[in-house]
């Protein structure tokens, strides 16, 4: 039967976990490197830790300050000064934190054969009841097909198939001035990083995604593939990604009348291409696969891609198309890899439903929304790290790998020795072969063993067949 702990004890344990996360990941140093520094009063790391813990303790800022139960709580003005500062580089802070967690915690746990990927997608950042928020606009929600007041939260993340971590994001307004309710605050200094983020917010999403890619280093994160949805399914986007970044592209395709793919010297739309290619018989899940040409890169070299047509499991008579610029990948592998894109959808659900994304503060400043979203993403990083440590036994360190590898080698060596013993016993029973001839055969077999088995035979626990020396 589970024990119900008092609320004070639960909060103390939570504060201990948060403090340990801030200390182990050196968030104070990362804030300082991101130009988030103390100007007066409390240090920024203390303010961030206070905001960070509110939702985890099921509290909000107003009730916490009004109740007076926390004498060490900061003043409301100190919190809003932190959030509204246009010189703080919150994107750099989030990127530094994610890179540290990935390189120090996750990459040592993932084999080189396992695919590490980048995932790009957007989600609705709703402010439906607001009117005076800076750069508020009517944005299209792909899920419902309707327009809402708010922003499009374009997010770039990293995943190894088990854990997703956000790397960078941009709160996009509308590039059309007629769709915007408010414009950029004219008092913002144009030299600040906050102004640059505002200018980025009025770009098209197909242009803003390259601003996010420019800030990261895919090689440092060991990522070789970029995933994104059909809303970014344009050949010119793929051409730029493949030409400028060390990344392959896997994406879902959208049926568009003005986008063509070259196949056997002819140009086809996606629907026409499906009608032309040869289909597999029966109820196969993968209906067809074809290699097409997308465009020419800057060196006049043809950019080729493989399009895999798969059956829509929701509508059996319908089909979906997945594109991969790595034409050497098998069809099944392309479909399997694209399944990793779902990790970012789970991330959006957790951030909105449980971490109070867009609901905790009713700020009107664009800087405050960027700062609060960064803190929400930091909460998710801590939860993702704790989940991985609780579920993955390899997080106890390199000792696990050394012990497991050594044990597996010894067990395999013992099995081989048992086989050799049985073989020697069988051969010596025959009057045709003498014991010296049997031993000579076993010695020749041992000489052909791989090196790791020979090393395992040198272990004192392993007893060799009589006469067989290592």
UniProtKB/TrEMBL annotation:
Name of the protein described by the UniProt record: Transposase DDE domain-containing protein
Domain named Transposase IS701-like DDE: residues: 75-264
Native source organism of the sequence: Trichococcus ilyis
UniProt xrefs under InterPro entries: IS701-like_DDE_dom, RNaseH-like_sf
């Amino acid at each position: 039967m589970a024990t119900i702990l008092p609320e004070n004890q639960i909060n103390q344990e939570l504060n201990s976990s948060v403090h340990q996360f801030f200390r182990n990941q050196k968030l104070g140093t990362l804030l300082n490197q991101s130009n988030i520094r103390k100007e007066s009063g409390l240090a920024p790391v203390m303010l961030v830790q206070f905001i960070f813990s509110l939702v985890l303790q099921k509290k909000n800022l107003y009730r916490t300050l009004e109740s007076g139960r926390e004498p060490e709580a900061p003043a409301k003005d100190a919190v809003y000064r932190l959030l509204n500062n246009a010189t703080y580089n919150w994107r750099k802070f989030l990127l530094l934190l994610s890179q540290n967690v990935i390189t120090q915690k996750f990459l040592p746990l993932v084999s080189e054969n396992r695919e590490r990927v980048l995932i790009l997608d957007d989600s609705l950042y709703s402010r439906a009841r607001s009117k005076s928020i800076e750069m508020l606009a009517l944005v299209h929600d792909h899920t419902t097909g309707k327009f809402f007041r708010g922003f499009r939260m374009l997010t770039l993340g990293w995943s190894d198939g088990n854990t997703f971590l956000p790397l960078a994001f941009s709160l996009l307004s509308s590039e059309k001035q007629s769709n915007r309710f408010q414009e950029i605050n004219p008092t913002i200094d144009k030299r600040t990083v906050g102004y640059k983020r505002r200018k980025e917010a009025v770009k098209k999403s197909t242009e803003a995604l390259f601003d996010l890619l420019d800030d990261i280093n895919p090689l440092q994160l060991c990522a070789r593939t970029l995933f994104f949805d059909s809303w970014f399914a344009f050949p010119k986007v793929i051409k730029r990604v493949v030409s400028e970044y060390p990344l392959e592209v896997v994406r879902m395709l959208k049926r568009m009348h003005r986008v063509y793919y070259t196949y056997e010297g002819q140009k086809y739309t996606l629907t026409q291409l499906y009608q032309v290619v040869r289909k597999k018989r029966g109820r196969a899940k993968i209906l067809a696969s074809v290699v097409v040409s997308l465009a020419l890169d800057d060196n006049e070299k043809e950019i080729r891609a493989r399009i895999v047509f798969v059956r829509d499991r929701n509508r059996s008579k319908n089909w979906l198309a997945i594109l991969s610029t790595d034409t050497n990948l098998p069809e099944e592998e392309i479909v399997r890899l694209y399944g990793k894109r779902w990790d970012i959808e789970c991330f959006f659900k957790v951030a909105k439903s449980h971490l109070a994304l867009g609901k905790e503060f009713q700020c009107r400043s664009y800087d405050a929304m960027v700062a609060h979203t960064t803190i929400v993403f930091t909460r998710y990083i801590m939860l993702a790290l704790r989940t991985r440590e609780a579920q993955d036994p390899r997080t106890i360190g390199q000792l696990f790998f050394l012990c497991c590898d050594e044990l597996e080698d010894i067990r395999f060596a013992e099995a081989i020795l048992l086989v050799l013993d049985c073989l020697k016993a069988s051969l010596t029973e025959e009057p045709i072969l003498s014991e010296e001839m049997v031993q000579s055969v076993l010695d020749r077999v041992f000489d052909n063993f791989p090196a790791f088995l020979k090393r395992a035979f040198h272990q004192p626990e392993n007893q060799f067949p009589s006469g067989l020396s290592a």
